[in-house]
Amino acid sequence: MALADRRPARSAPRIPPPTAGKIPLKVSIFEKMQTTNTTLLPLFPYRGEGAIVPCGAIFTGGPGRDFGHFFHTNPLDEVVLTFGASGGNVHAGDVHVLAKTHGVRPDIKDPTDPSTFLVTCITQRDASEASGYGREAITFRCHGCSEVLLRFEFAALPPLPPHAAGAERYPTFATITGTLAAAEAFNADVAQRTCRKCGRVNAPFPIRGWIRYVAQSRTVNEARRTLTAQATSMPAGPEKE
Known about the structure:
By secondary structure, the chain is α+β, with helices and mostly antiparallel strands.
C-alpha cells in the first residue's frame, strides 16, 4: 500500500453559515478610503460583542503636515496588513501583529513630503464578556524625553444590539471615540502638555478627522431618527375597496 493510502482521510473544512442579519460583504479598501472623513474607519457595518472589525487607515504627506504620536494599549490583538506605502520602511503586502501597547504613528519618514503615503487595514475586535470587556488606554509622551504626560483609559464596550434601548443605527467605533476623548483632554490643558521632567511644552495633538467622524456619526443617526419619525407619523393611505 502506498504511503498516501495509509494517511487518514481529511474532512473538508466547514465554514458556518453567516450569522442572521450579517450577509457576507466585500469592499475595496482603496475605494472606501477615497471617501473617508477620518484616518481610521471600520470597513464593514457589522459590529457587536466579539465581532472582528477590519478598519482602513490612510495617511498622506504634505507641506506642514504632522501626524502626531501616541501609544495605544489594547488587550485584544490587532493585525496590520499594508496595502500600499511610500516613504517609509513598510511595503505593500507586509503583515504584522501589534504589541498590546504600541506606538501609533504612520511609518512615513517625512510627513511633509506630498509623495509619501500609507494605506493599511488594521483588524481589531469588539470586546466580549469572555475578554472582560477590555479597557483600552491612550498614552501621550513628551516628544523631548519620552516622559509620560497623560494616560487616558476608557472602556472599549461593543455597541448595543440594534433593537436595544438607546442603540444607534450607525454606532461609532469605540477606539476612535476613546482616542478623541483622550486627545481633547490632552489638548485642553497646557500644563498637561508641559513635561514635568524636561520642561518641554508639547504641541496639541491633531484631531480634526476624529472630530468630523464623531460629528457626522451623530448627524446621520439623528437624520435616520427623523426619517423614521416622519414615516411613522404619516397617515395611512386610503383603503382599497
